[in-house]
Amino acid sequence: MEDYLDRISQSIKRSLSFPERTVAHGFDGALDEGSVAEITYEEDPSEDLALSAIDGGSNTIIKTPTLALVLNRVYCNKFDRMKKLDFVELSTFVSSTRVVTDGDRVLFETEVYPQQGACPLEMPKVDTNDPEMRIGRMRGDLDRAISMARRFCEWSFVSRALGSGAGFIVMDGSLQTAFPGESELANRAYEEAGSRGAVVAGLSKSSMIYTNEGYPLVGFLNMMAGRGGLSRWMARVGRSEEWAPRAEVYFVRLHEGADRAFRLDVFERAGEAEVARLVRSLQANSRYFAYPGYPYALIDAHAYARVGKEEAMHIRDLILDKLDLEDASRLEQAERALMGHDVLDELG
Amino acid sequence: MNMIVGQIVGGGNTELIIREKKGVGLELGDLVAVEDGSRRYLYMVSALEYGSLVEEDRLFTSSGSMLEGTKPNVEIPERDLRLFRKVHVSPLLEVRYEGKGEGGRPVPRSPRAIPTFLSKAREITREDFSFLQKPETEIFLGRIRSGTKVLDLDYHLNGEDMLSHHTLISAQTGRGKSNLVKVMLWEAMRHNRFGVLVMDIHNEYFGVGSNKGLKNHPNADRSLVYYSKSPPPGQRRLRINLRALYPSYLIGVVELTEAQEGALEFYYREHGRDWIRELMTEDAVREKEYERRGVQPVTIHTLRRKLGNLFKIRTAKEGGAPYCEDEVFDMESMGESTVKDIADCIEQGKVVIIDGSSISDDTGLIITNAVMKDIFHRYESYKDEGTLKDRPQVGVVLEEAPRVLGEAYGDNIFGKIAREGRKFRIGLIAVSQMVSIIPDDILANIGTKIIMGNEMAQERRKLIESASQDLSAYDQLIAGLDKGEAIVSSIFSKFPVPIYTPLFENLVKEVETEKRSEKAFF
Q1: Which residues partner with B98 through β-bridges?
Q2: Same domain, A245 and A341
Q3: B73 — contact with chain A (CB < 8 Å)?
Q4: Does A231 touch chain B (CB under 8 A)?
Q5: Cα distance from B55 to chain A (closest Cα, Å)?
Q6: Which tens digit of pLDDT belongs to each residue from B401-455?
Q7: What is the CATH number of the domain that holds A179?
Q8: Is the domain of B163 the same as that of B118?
């Protein structure tokens, strides 16, 4: 037994033996100790550091193998440093994604039913065989398709967030696009932001980016920062069509008390000075006592965008009330096709 | 628009939990209102606690980092939604609006429902108590308060109800008991139809010298009588002739053994109204004779000592007559009608204050006992005659009530009044800080309890158990009541009413100012 544990621990050790110099897989720039630069923050009350954060949340109402109803909420706010300003936009809607056929083609068709604060979306029919939906040799599955509506709404919220007058629009997560039609939506958002002199960025709580040698990138950067004795730092990782088309990717540690660094995607056209100002804006907004180093505007957006299970269940009850007994029974049967695991979990 | 103080996020019929709106700063005892369609609910803040959506471990870590300076440069934003205060509120009242017209007629009742989930709670206003009606013989007890904020709204109880069903004023020393009694007596005097006997052991109610007191009442000349060893002009000298006292006046209020009680009765049978004089007269031959008839000399000697101390009688040596050293008591011809005179005044609906500062507590109780026995006897007769309803409601203020209401003293007139007085229009105003030694059956007979600050847990428990409403959530609140603050729990009220009784002196000033401006007008 000890033998295999030894082998596992050796393997872990090897995975943490970071090189002195590397390149993030799929990116264009080389990285070493010199790539990690110290950042500082000195308060200048006259500097406009207002930012608007966008986040979305969702919870499933009904799900069968071919139909999913999801309650979605997207929210944006505006902060000046740690102060929340009087600007809020919110949209709550139900998205219905169905599997439909068109000859030989199998498509995902999504319809949107606004509940509060309309989010007018034109959801394209998506081919399950579309390369952006496929996973290996498999057609795209419903689980992925149901998050399309929320993601599209988040992009459309960039326009609303720009209405706040904030110079920086920070989305929860990366700027990576993953659905058919999403790039077009993102491009429209970038263009509108650019025309208003604003910068769009995405901040990810987690990152899967690795180096060419197969090491976790964030681990490598942390080690380099540690060597330089840096408590607040940023590192430009570079450009990657795969990880973030049209974005420059950075890693940032925004507070000396932070327990981790975050991936920051910044729209490609932002200049050096704009990026520096964005990072100052984020630093000024990342002083929340319980989670220093993470922007408070995103914590706020997360809280307001969250959709509780109870909330989704309430909508479910309202929908089931509209069905006759026979239809409701059929629906439940269809849902059971996906619930085998739940039953096993209940058995302990 | 009234200020929103929070929103209901949990709880049930026994208490609700409200998330407090940032910066409101509710305090224990504050009142809040919740509107719900045609109903309005009133609640009182009974507990406060912290709430946080941040996990406890993270909170400990973060606060530790801030305290120890390992994570400086962090903030808790003013509008942080994750940190808040949870306010527990206890139900006071449900007000339904019945009928048409502007809002309908408010009808209060004990809460039988709960407001809609997530309803907003707002601060209370005087309009929330629009259902309160001024009773015909109102006795002002104070102003309704919300926590420490006093509303511009007077709270009254019906004097007839309050007095006939007895009132208990309970508080620790220094919380405003005497002030409240003064205010109540002042109010009683406005009506000229409440006869109240007050044995004023600290001589603080009348208003001696330049002090403000009941003498300053506009009706004082016809509604107030003051007995004192040294009365001011126009008032009465306190002089009690011991011949007017019966042994029964002592029994139940003075600590006596069975043998001593028997000896008192014996002397009364032998000597009639001169029984005290004869008991105090040393006569060895007679004592021998009485010993033969069952009264031990030691009993006589002990009684002689006790009565001597009570009435300040000096024992005459053999052959000489005993005499009262004090001017208050007399064994000759003075003061024979005092007890009857006092009873007459009370029966005429006057407040009678006896300055008890120059006599012992026991002596004061004997006099009170004597007067109330007389009154009780008269009112029993009126009931038999069918004229009781034409007589004024009477009462007696009993300071340190447990002394005479406690089980140790057995049955006396005060216990009798507590148990049966209501039928005869005789009531008690019992004042005490030691409620726990008053028997349960007597407490149960007290219709109105005015609970002031009390830090003794045992006393609070007793008060809460015996209150007319469920006060189980009020324990800490009662402990923290400030001077003048009280909770009125009465069978004549639909809810426990938090009040603040203003300083008596201010009340007098208000009346005097009103009087002056009336004169100026005419």
Answers
A1: B105
A2: no
A3: yes
A4: no
A5: 9
A6: 776 776 555 568 888 898 899 999 999 999 988 888 888 888 999 999 999 999 9
A7: 3.30.2170
A8: no
